[in-house]
Amino acid sequence: MTSPFPCTAADLAKLLGRTVAGDANAVITGVNSIELAQDGDVTFLGSDTFAQHLPTTGATCVIVREKDAQSVRSAAWIVSPNPYADIVTILRAVSPLYEHEPGHRDPRAVIDDSAFVAETASIGPGCVITAGCEIGENTQLLANVVLYPRTRIGRDCTVNANTTCYQDTLIGDRCIIHAGAVIGSDGFGYVEQDDKHFEKIPHVGSVCIGNDVEIGANVTIDRAAMGQTVIEDGVKIDNLVQLAHGVRVGENSAIAAQVAIAGGTVVGRRNRIAGQAGIVGHVVTTDDVVVYAQSGVAKSITAPGAYFGSPAKEHAQALRMEMALRQLPELLHQIRTMAAELEALKKEHQQ
Amino acid sequence: MTSPFPCTAADLAKLLGRTVAGDANAVITGVNSIELAQDGDVTFLGSDTFAQHLPTTGATCVIVREKDAQSVRSAAWIVSPNPYADIVTILRAVSPLYEHEPGHRDPRAVIDDSAFVAETASIGPGCVITAGCEIGENTQLLANVVLYPRTRIGRDCTVNANTTCYQDTLIGDRCIIHAGAVIGSDGFGYVEQDDKHFEKIPHVGSVCIGNDVEIGANVTIDRAAMGQTVIEDGVKIDNLVQLAHGVRVGENSAIAAQVAIAGGTVVGRRNRIAGQAGIVGHVVTTDDVVVYAQSGVAKSITAPGAYFGSPAKEHAQALRMEMALRQLPELLHQIRTMAAELEALKKEHQQ
Amino acid sequence: MTSPFPCTAADLAKLLGRTVAGDANAVITGVNSIELAQDGDVTFLGSDTFAQHLPTTGATCVIVREKDAQSVRSAAWIVSPNPYADIVTILRAVSPLYEHEPGHRDPRAVIDDSAFVAETASIGPGCVITAGCEIGENTQLLANVVLYPRTRIGRDCTVNANTTCYQDTLIGDRCIIHAGAVIGSDGFGYVEQDDKHFEKIPHVGSVCIGNDVEIGANVTIDRAAMGQTVIEDGVKIDNLVQLAHGVRVGENSAIAAQVAIAGGTVVGRRNRIAGQAGIVGHVVTTDDVVVYAQSGVAKSITAPGAYFGSPAKEHAQALRMEMALRQLPELLHQIRTMAAELEALKKEHQQ
Question: N or C: at which end does chain C have fewer Cβ atoms within 10 angstroms?
Fold first, then answer.
């Protein structure tokens, strides 16, 4: 698809399957936010938050909800039940995704004879699909993706460039794996010998990822020593996250960038783990737990709620401690004064 | 190798080179842990920790130490001097590693004429072996591995997919490098100019990795500006670790996920650095140091022992501080009361 | 270029375009620092810091500033206006960079017909250059680099192996991108639904990187949901850093390893963000801010200066708090004593 710009407001309305009001022939050359839009731009107003900008925006065309149409002062406008979705449609026309034609088999890909690739799945250049792999319908492997033997990926997935899946990795449907992710590498498990050198524990488990999971760029998820590391349906994982061997993440949990979760830990459903937080191994967090950024969870969390600090405490307690700590230098001074006064009083008494 | 299942208990015993007791014809269809095993599973008991599960496990076949044989209630059992090693053998048969045939030269690999690849070394698809590289016997480069010029890798190593080694990287024998690791990138070194822009310091050193080292997925190890960044024998490095230019890590040290060690720092032997910890540049930790998770080591550590906190202190001191901090909000209240009482006493005295 | 060693001191001088003093025929076999250099080594003295080693160094040849020439006791010496630059020249001859010939088009690269690659740009093996990409003069794509459609890279850049740029990524001139970096992946943006599952927010923005930017190994920089994530001229980013969607980093700022900056945050010019620090989303740091290692910036910073702690405070305040905290366990003891004494005094009074 090529860029729709330059075009008229009427052309945009047609692209969206809607009708234009005002000057249908107004020329549109770009997209911008409502505060920054200038002559030639199309913009949108999707919520009340930015409504004050509607009368003053420099945009030539605005996509608005019906209730906002009367406040438009721009040359043209398009009424929509979902202005945000419509602006995304326009932007996707400007910046289409990198995708192969369904059924593409790039001549520079390597596909083992024993692998099964569904008819509509697409395999980009430099991909390596080894023995016993299975790729579902409409799934896209973009470029230089390496799948070790018996990796199975469901339908409607996108696997971005330079991703690696180790043997027996299982990925559900509608997943997005971002570039550079490594799924199924050996866990960090050794037996320390008497002379303090390490003997490696073989990792013969695997990684199992549910449906509708998104995995960020350069994420690492280790295979279990035995059994499975499990990411349940609907989990969203940000860039550079580390999930160790045998971790289980409950459905619809979200894990922000650079979080690390150590081996064997079970994260409940609907947890929200903020950036750079860590959770030690072999603990459990219950459902509906929020862990704040940079916190260190050192033991199991059995009550839903928010936790903060390293080691992590209930958020309210952590805040009280932080507030108290800020008063501590002054407190030291006060106590020294009190101690002197007390000493003086004692002396007086003894006289 | 194809999966051994379904098979009989006798077949498994044969695979292990052992003898079966009980029902030799019992059909085995899977593997599971002793608590979770069900009808058709083989399991194992390798230590006393889980011994209470032996009489009640649902497994059809159990691999046990001789001393536990009398307590087996399952249909079949196999006595072994090392039940754990035997179950790993079975699991490896179920989930074999991704390996090429010794001596494999994939037609989609690029191998420079001036590179030396030992006869039994294997080079997978998409690998790029540039001028002057050397690869030792039985070493496996799996897929899309890029070695910049003069990288030398010893024998019996495995280098996983999408790994990059910059020029002059030196790797010993029996090392495992996990996918996405970057070894030998330029260190973060600049000279700040008067106008505050940075001039890059050329990095002409290299990285030297000893024998029996394991390096996790997406790890980054920078080359020294001059001289070498050194990882000594037996060091184990978890995923997403950052080792800066000129770092040296002493033998048999273990560094957990997302640790960062800044430039020029020397880590002693047998150190244990837990996840997300950081060590500043140009300091030294002595041998046998343990750094707890998320700690920040801000100066050299000269005594063996455990350290915690940011900045890191002796673990016992850090614990005392943490315990005291938890009492601080209440303490503030108490001190306010004491101050009021003291004031009252003073007033009485003055009367 | 092959190694210059072994050679004479005169050969080295010729390589540098300078003249040799002392024994022009002294044989040089290696390079080392002034403290460690031994017989056969060339070394350098570039500043006063190491001047005390000049009379005692074991080096056979020393490169020195004119003012230091009289203190040389080695067999040969070379006077230079910039000894450091000269030793780098020698080291570069020993350890040349991985580069392709200008204009190289590797037969194992994939270059879309609609892409523009400047005549002197070089495309290494396994690179994937998709539709509408543009690569400027003298830029090097080393190996297995994947550029999604419409990526534009300026002139004199180096893009190292296994790097991925998503669609519409824009990179200026003289940039260095290290191996495994992922630029332009989708931001971590979802709308939580009533049933707590997440709907993905389409990310139709892009990443724009200025001139003279260096990006470390395995760094991740997300595209904006709309608009741009912006890295201004002269910014230096260390390994494993995470920059979220819509972040802007001001010119000549430096961001050390494993830093994470959350979505929409604007970092000022000439900021210095130390390792493992984090900055929350949608805040601003003014120009000339220093954030210490492992700090967590939880709100906007409006005054230049140094900040430390999680949450981050002015550095001096954070230090006072840390000092006070160290005294806290003892303080608890003191207060208990004071409380007892106070109680005793009160009782006496009541009598």
Answer: C
